[in-house]
Amino acid sequence: MSKKVLFIVGSLREGSFNHQMALEAEKALAGKAEVSYLDYSAIPLFNQELEVPTLPAVAAAREAVLAADAIWIFSPVYNFSIPGTVKNLLDWLSRAIDLSDTRGASALQDKIVTVSSVANAGHEQLFAIYKDLLPFIRTQVVGEFTAARVNDSAWADGKLVLEDSVATSLKQQAEDLVQAIQ
Ligand SMILES: Cc1cc2nc3c(=O)[nH]c(=O)nc-3n(C[C@H](O)[C@H](O)[C@H](O)COP(=O)(O)O)c2cc1C
């Protein structure tokens, strides 16, 4: 059975450069793992009062995470930090599935996770935050995180062009992820 990698793109923007990077990563995983994209657009801002009964959008996101062997997050940098979109999603997913045992397993328990990012500045700070957060929510971080700059022409023509070294790093990250889920 082929391995499943769930992509989380941390930008909801049409034409997102992080989404474009995800498409490149998908090519790097072709033939090695099945890729799907998590649609988390219907998940509301976290509110403990909304946890019970489980919202359909949250249940669907949990199912997608549980069915995946690994997660690959493609994250913009917002103010040198994690975009609220991704943090909100991870907060929801970090909650115990059975709330009668709040320390019990979440859908993310032991999940293998890696991160890449397209931005102009702040990758280092962003990656440091993910490297603190992801183990805290009981996931296993793998691979060297790939950082890409927004190339100068990208805002004019909407097309992200990855430098050769970045494309190589992305392929290596895909390889490392595949190795980790064998
Ligand atoms: C609220 C906000 C904060 C941002 N902060 C940063 C930042 O700290 N560093 C940076 O390089 N770009 C920053 N940007 C610009 C984003 O990197 C840029 O919009 C990028 O294209 C977002 O990724 P996307 O193309 O996948 O949507 C910020 C953008 C927004 C909307």
TrEMBL record:
Domain NADPH-dependent FMN reductase-like: 4-145
Keyword Oxidoreductase attributed: yes
E.C. code: 1.-.-.-
Enzyme class: oxidoreductase
The keyword Transferase is assigned to this record: no
Pfam family, one: FMN_red
Keywords attached to this entry: Oxidoreductase
Source organism, top-level taxon: Bacteria
GO molecular function terms attached to this record: oxidoreductase activity
Name of protein: NADPH-dependent FMN reductase
Organism: Streptococcus taonis
